[in-house]
Write a structure and sequence with these properties.
Residues 2-452 form the Aldehyde dehydrogenase domain. This protein is α/β, with parallel strands linked by helices. The chain has helices at 21-33, 35-40, 43-58, 61-72, 76-96, 135-147, 160-172, 187-196, 209-222, 244-256, 276-288, 308-323, 355-358, 374-382, 397-406, 439-444, and strands spanning 2-5, 12-16, 103-105, 113-120, 124-127, 151-154, 180-182, 202-206, 225-229, 234-238, 266-272, 327-330, 345-348, 365-371, 386-387, 389-393, 411-414, 429-430, 433-434, 447-454. The relative contact order is 0.14. The protein binds adenosine-5'-diphosphate. Adenosine-5'-diphosphate is lined by residues 127-129, 154, 156-157, 187-188, 191, 207-208, 211, 214-215.
Length: 457
């Protein structure tokens, strides 16, 4: 068994099975064997089963939220927020299942009809991270099942309890064995099984760019298609015409969600020179009012880092900035609570050579850079191998359009710090991966287009 630890106090909160390879293989077999019957179900039947799962979870929110606080460390308010977000995908795709339309094309030949139909790609697999233990799974499973695919999930071994509870509720709602399966154990071994089995026709992965590259390399050998949601290095640009109060609120919301352990967390705050000092002062005032602590309470708090490696990474990035001559405007060390807690921190007077300008911080650290002109900041914002999301605050409409065109990212968010919901396409470009999740576009990743020519009519 794998012990699951509460990052807030190190206690064991539960266990998950460390499956043997033969158990993993049996689960893959069930996923593949269940595909023909599931794909032939009426769209309405798949839709109703998904809707039933949605309702079953909705009746059990409190138990899910508590589990998420305990194994992930996020606060209760955020756990409930994630449940709403994650439920949104099941609800959306329960509806979308009925609307996977095909097409007809004017025929190129006499007495013929050209049709395009969409068919589920086949059995699929997914590997998910620990930072959103609920939503990462519902987003992938609901899409796959709606399209008529079956799916086997390997959740993060840091947060398998929420995952197994999702499986249990799916079974209670009548989603059959094989249609949705789950395995935990050795990630590398399981990843290799997923990528080498030619019966698995698609893999969806959310996690680090390094692991994404390994999986995509192996999947290249079997030509297994992939959706990859990888690392980010999001710029958050505040222009001198921005609504300062809104920009501070947006910055705090986007940065401190899940204690900064989010792939779309702003990693580089670019603030126009003319308002830089005022912005930093307002940000410090706002952030200093936010508490740090264990999450089983009703108000928002910044929680612990997920594990010792996460804490050490954040500490070492801040120390490296300090040594490089940056100014620590707030925080800057491990929190007095001890354990895995880190102080919400603001670092200023950084330059683009700083280690934290190139590395995903994954912690509650605001890294602030000055800029002078729009052209300069767009160039600096794009000077990264990543391209997941970019945020901008400006009241100038022309500038908003220019940003939306010129920023290299899968998502551009203007005058808001909030990105995700079920109805929009989530995903990146460059080394942040490819493919989209959510919205109409999400389902396209799980269907093959089949061209049918009926000639001789
Ligand atoms: P993070 O930094 O978010 O933990 P990882 O990429 O390490 O990112 O982990 C994301 C998911 O990938 C987790 O479920 C983890 O267990 C899994 N994972 C880690 N290494 C491998 C691997 N070599 N092959 C397949 N999955 C892996």
């Amino acid at each position: 068994m794998i012990d699951v630890l509460n990052p807030a106090d190190g206690t064991v909160v539960g266990q998950a099975p460390a499956m043997t390879l033969s158990e993993v293989n049996s689960a893959i077999d069930r996923t593949c064997e269940a595909f023909p019957a599931w794909s032939r179900k009426l769209a309405k039947e798949r839709s109703e089963l998904l809707r039933g799962w949605f309702e079953r979870i909705r009746d059990d929110k409190a138990a899910f939220a508590e589990l998420m606080v305990k194994e992930n460390g996020k606060c209760l308010a955020e756990a409930y927020g994630e449940i709403e977000y994650g439920l949104g995908f099941i609800e959306w795709y329960a509806e979308e299942a009925k609307r996977i339309y095909g097409d007809t094309i004017p025929s190129h030949a006499a007495n013929a009809q050209v049709m395009v139909v969409k068919e589920p790609v086949g059995p699929t697999a997914a590997i998910t991270p620990w930072n959103f233990p609920f939503m990462m799974i519902t987003r992938k499973v609901a899409t796959a099942l709606a399209a008529g695919c079956t799916m086997i999930i390997k959740p993060s071994e840091e947060t398998p309890l929420t995952a197994y509870k999702l499986l249990e509720t799916a079974r209670e709602a009548g989603i059959p064995e094989g249609v949705f399966e789950m395995v935990t154990g050795n990630p590398k071994e399981i990843g290799e099984r997923f990528t080498s089995d030619t019966r698995i026709r698609k893999i969806s992965f959310t996690g680090s760019t390094a692991v994404g590259r390994t999986l995509a390399g192996a999947a290249g050998q079997t030509l297994t298609r992939m959706t990859l949601e990888l690392g980010g290095n999001a710029p958050f640009i505040v222009f001198d015409d921005a609504d300062m109060e809104a920009a501070v609120e947006g910055a705090v919301g986007a940065k401190l969600r899940n204690s900064g352990q989010v792939c779309i967390s702003p990693n580089r705050f670019y603030v126009h020179d003319a308002i830089h000092d005022r912005f930093v002062e307002a940000l410090a005032e706002r952030v200093s009012r936010i508490e740090v602590g264990e999450g089983m309470r009703d108000d928002f708090v910044v929680g612990p880092m997920i594990n010792r490696t996460g804490l050490e990474k954040v500490s070492s990035l801040v120390e490296s900035a300090r040594r490089g001559g940056a100014n620590i405007a707030l925080g800057g060390r491990a929190h007095g609570l001890g354990g895995l807690f880190y102080e919400p921190t603001i670092v200023t007077e950084l330059d683009d050579d700083a280690e934290m300008a190139r590395t995903e911080i994954f912690g509650p650290v605001f890294a602030v850079y000055r800029f002078q002109t729009e052209a300069e900041v767009i160039e600096r914002a794009n000077a990264t191998e990543y391209g997941l999301v970019a945020y901008g605050y400006t009241r100038d409409l022309g500038r908003s359009f220019r940003l939306s065109r010129e920023i290299e990212a899968g998502m551009v968010i203007l005058n808001s710090g909030s990105v995700g919901t079920a109805s929009v396409p989530f995903g990146g470009v460059k080394q942040s991966g490819y493919g989209r999740e959510g919205s109409f576009y999400g389902i396209e990743e799980y269907v093959d287009v089949k061209y049918v020519l009926m000639s001789g009519l």
